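Mods, move this if it's the wrong board.
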Amino acid sequence: MFGTPSASGQKPLSVVKAGVRSFTSSPWGLIFVLFFLRSLLGALFPVFGDEAYYLYWGQHFSGGYYDLSPMIGWWIAGANALGLNDIGALRGLNDFSWLCVIVVLERLLMARQVPAERRAPVMILIAAIPLLSLGVLLSPDVPLLLFSTLAIASLLRTLYSGGHPVWIGFFLGLSFLSKYLVVAWAGTFVVYAWKRWLSFRQVVWILLGALPALVQHLWWNWTHCQATITFNFFTRQMVSDGTFVQTFGLFLIYVVLWVTPSGFRLLWGGRLENSSTKNVGMPDFVHALFWIWFPAVVFFAISAMSKGQGLHWYAFIAPWFFLWLGLRSPLDRLRRVTFWMVALSGVLLGSAIGVSQLSGQNPQAIAPLLQPKVRQDFWLSVRTETILAQALLGVPTTERLAVSSESYVLASVFDRGLRQLGRLDTPIFVWGGGSRFGRVFDFTTDIRKLAGRSILVFTRTPLGDVELENFFKMGFERRSVQMHDQTFHFVLGHGFDAEKYFSGVHAPKVTEFYPEILPQGKCELK
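Not the wrong board. Structure tokens:
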């Protein structure tokens, strides 16, 4: 049986245990291996879905955008200004930020005088979290992960080392400009910290630090029809993503995937070890870590009662969850779990790199692995210019887009199509029913200025004649493009009646969804 001394005096598995101990004793070598694999995945994986949407934002710098806080757009625009291309701007900054998060957490543990024998496996464990290993593809969540980490680190530093609380508010403001999910934990944790440690004066400093970001965000919304606030807090809530069983069931599945089998193994471990509590304040520190991630999980659970979620929602609290677990788990178990977490992360990264190679060099090989409804988005992602060239020219072609974007405007009846089409630097907007959210594709397209232009409308199924005849004075042509097993439908309309479309389709939808309790602001559609 395991643990019984052998004839030679050596315990079985002692060599394996020694190997695991050695494996988890030097964190930075393993962390940089994971960093390299993440970078390789980011360089090889094609732009997809929301990523194309954010790249469009980066090409059109603005004080805000339609359905998210603006940080990811600023993030990419800044990288573009430094000469980075699309992939470099999007994925390179993701990698750099992930590394910054690891460094901040490591310095935090050193400041708490966590022994090196525990600090090393904890840092490796956090670096190997599968959700973060694949996080190079989680665009808007990466700025939130970085700035929320800095906000929490500033809060803990203020509580334990006398740091100035204004930095807490400053980084909270940047987190808010990254994604609204910051409200899932910020209020609860600050209230908890105030009750236990913070003075009223410190809380005032936090609010002052966050004030510039809040003022900027509210001012942009005031001057743009309250777009981001309306969409996130009102319009989005009018559309259910499924039944309670579906949404809450998905929440439970995501929690299991987020925690991973390794995390559950640590959860079933023993109490906080004495070796970790020798330093004054360590139990309180671990208790504080609990209140960083726990309120967010409760918030997500409540949200899941009516709304669908994505696994990426949990990215910004994952490091704090595993930091809490790592500090309260027996050291031997922590080392073993860390070893298997690295193995799992390596397998996932290797598999994703293999898939990305297939999708880049031989898309036909990967397409059959996708669900039928995803294949069209896949082909649109990897063959954007070819598909549009065929639609515009009316003939099959493999050439790059041969028709000047000045001669037409792109539109789509659903926003996922726009996310891919928006990679091309041309005006673009949501056609028809998609305008129920008041989208003008983030205000980069003024529909009323498109009078007389030709509009190329992308749709999954053919549009009805009546709808088209109402808005094209010079007629329209139906076209379709076949890409392997998918058919892409287009309408090329001429002589766009912009005023009739604006007053008959777009403005009524915006008015319908505009909440009465919000001040009107500078909203020309009301």
